[in-house]
Specification:
By secondary structure, this protein is of the alpha+beta class. The chain folds into three domains: about 55 residues, RNA-binding S4 domain (Structural Genomics Hypothetical 15.5 Kd Protein In mrcA-pckA Intergenic Region, Chain A, Roll); about 90 residues, Pseudouridine synthase, CATH 3.30.2350; about 100 residues, Pseudouridine synthase, CATH 3.30.2350.10. It is built from six helices and 16 strands. Strands 6, 7, 8, 9, 10, 13, 14, 15 and 16 form a nine-stranded mixed beta sheet that branches. Strands 1-5-3 form a three-stranded antiparallel beta sheet. A two-stranded antiparallel ribbon has the order 2-4. Strand 13 and strand 14 form a beta hairpin. The longest helix is centred in the middle third of the chain and has 12 residues. About 35% of the residues are buried.
Length: about 290
Amino acid sequence: MKCQVKQNDIRLDNYLTEIMDESRSQISKMVKNKEVLVNGETVKAGYLLKEGDIVEVNHTSVQGVNPEKMNLDIVYEDDDVIVVNKANGVVVHPGAGNHTGTLVNGLLYHTKLSDINGEVRPGIVHRIDAYTTGLLMVAKNNKAHEILAQELALKKTYRKYVALVWGVIESDSGEIDAPIGRSKNDRKKMAIREDGKEAITYFKVLKRFKNATLIEVQLKTGRTHQIRVHMNYIGHPVVNDPVYGNRKLFDNSGQCLHAKELGFIHPTTGEYMQFDSELPECFMNIMKNFE
């Protein structure tokens, strides 16, 4: 895996813990075993990275990714990009504990993908959680990947989510501005932290129920679990979220959160393209409990 750092003064071990599905102890072992290079040289785990540094990891818990035949809901496809409507429960790419059955496994059976992110995350420009459904853009070649990733970094990509949250939100719209970082108590969770990264979420009420609210959400930033963490922070956790918010679970289908709309500038034609998707059955079934 090779990637370019887009921030300043972050420790190498912290950076790798955020982007890889590995424990901090495993990261430290990889650095100690000289499996991690920064700008082609070995460094210590506490090395402070700078924007533009190239981090190369010559270790992976997944030895290659095998193509697997999978039913994919492809919304759009051309020579440069695929837009796929990810199903509930599907992990985007292989990682610790998920070596098969991921979206990447299925996409590699269907077509070739860019190799910028290495053999574990080919083509993946952005991710959504396993139990979040909805639209993702995937790059089929390196040129398209670089352009789409730059669009995302410059916040030119349009993404709109729909979520069902607990409680009745009185305001018709709102902004949540609270920094997010990895939880000090559980590395698999994110939390509001003063020393976290800037995270800003905008929401708008679509419909109010007796004990819940249907909202649309847009992100100014794209932090891990941002919507789930922010909505829990203001006392309105996402319905059926098994991780954030101590509330009733209706089933094991995961949180009622759907990446409904996606828009981007095509990397070759320069044309703006926008896509929409319907709420999945698992989401609709849970919402019926509040109607």
